[in-house]
Inverse folding.
């Protein structure tokens, strides 16, 4: 378990983030501090950020470069999460299938 000092620091940080008054923690035992921190973390998880404007999520279809991968193509370097097609590769369809097999490219 974390030390009392670490728990109090974590409680202070969460209270500041939630914009609520920090409770008195001076005379609390380690287990009490732990339970208090756990309660604040539950409250923090329940907070839902307000959306200020409508965000349209683009529909994903086709193939994309997989996470932590990048591929050099005719268009330049295509990084993780970017769409890719067989026409982008100098090896065409053969190279495209090889990248799918090696998990460099996958369905988006």
């Amino acid at each position: 378990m974390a030390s009392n000092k670490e728990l109090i620091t974590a409680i202070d940080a969460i209270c500041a983030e939630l914009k609520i008054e920090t409770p008195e923690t001076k005379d609390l035992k380690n287990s009490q501090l732990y339970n208090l921190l756990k309660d604040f973390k539950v409250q923090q998880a329940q907070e839902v950020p307000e959306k200020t404007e409508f965000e349209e999520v683009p529909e994903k279809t086709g193939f994309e470069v997989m996470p932590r991968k990048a591929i050099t193509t005719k268009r330049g370097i295509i990084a993780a999460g970017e769409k890719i097609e067989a026409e982008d590769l100098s090896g065409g369809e053969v190279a495209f299938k090889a990248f799918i097999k090696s998990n460099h490219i996958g369905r988006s």
In short: The helical segments are 4-18, 30-46, 92-101. The mean pLDDT is 84. The longest strand covers residues 70-73.
